TrEMBL record:
Keyword line: Acyltransferase, Cytoplasm, Ribonucleoprotein, Ribosomal protein, Transferase
N-acetyltransferase domain sequence ranges: 1-157
Family assignment from sequence similarity: Belongs to the acetyltransferase family. RimI subfamily.
Organism placement in taxonomy: Bacteria, Pseudomonadati, Pseudomonadota, Gammaproteobacteria, Oceanospirillales
NCBIfam families: rimI
InterPro entries: AcTrfase_RimI/Ard1 (IPR006464), Acyl_CoA_acyltransferase (IPR016181), GNAT_dom (IPR000182), YpeA/RimI_acetyltransf (IPR050680)
Protein name: Ribosomal protein S18-alanine N-acetyltransferase
One GO CC term, this protein: ribosome
Length: 157
């Protein structure tokens, strides 16, 4: 199930980001949950105990999208590492596109590490095109030296 997150979901969101490591700070997560121009959506899955008994819901992924004057910006998608590659990110991205259309945004923007090929393939599948590159934008990934480029991508809505 996909639904908007609120400040009541902050602990689950912070715990998910600690594992997903999408690069969003704890403070930024708190800020977007309170921002009327931001939407944080979560992908929840029912947890089962001993087969049929429900043990509650587990947050598997989240996405942050911000409403701008004429566009929307996808700021992050984070998915539990053990759930990556199982369609969670695609479902979240589909919901982000739908929400940006509801806002009547003209384009949906994002940036992604040039080395993040899984995310780039996902964005291309959802009709995002590369618009440019920010050279040396990101600090190098863990245990690597130097800096990494950011790809700027967008799609028309």
């Amino acid at each position: 199930m996909i639904s908007p997150l609120s400040t009541a979901d902050s602990a689950e969101l912070q715990a998910l980001e600690a594992q997903a490591n999408s690069g969003i700070s704890s403070q930024h997560l708190r800020d977007v949950l309170d921002d009327p121009n931001s939407l944080v959506i979560g992908y929840w899955q029912q947890e089962a105990l001993f087969g049929q008994v429900s043990a509650g819901e587990l947050l598997l992924g989240y996405a942050i999208v911000v409403r701008l004057p004429f566009e929307a910006e996808l700021q992050a998608i984070g998915v539990l590492p053990q759930k990556q590659g199982q369609g969670v990110g695609g479902k979240l991205l589909g919901e982000v596109v739908a929400r940006a259309r509801q806002w009547q945004s003209e384009r949906l923007l994002l940036e992604v590490r040039a080395s993040n090929q899984r995310a780039i393939r996902l964005y291309q599948h959802y009709e995002f095109n590369e618009d440019g590159r920010r050279r040396g934008y990101y600090p190098a990934a863990q245990s690597a030296a130097g800096r990494e480029d950011a790809l700027l991508m967008s799609r028309l809505l």
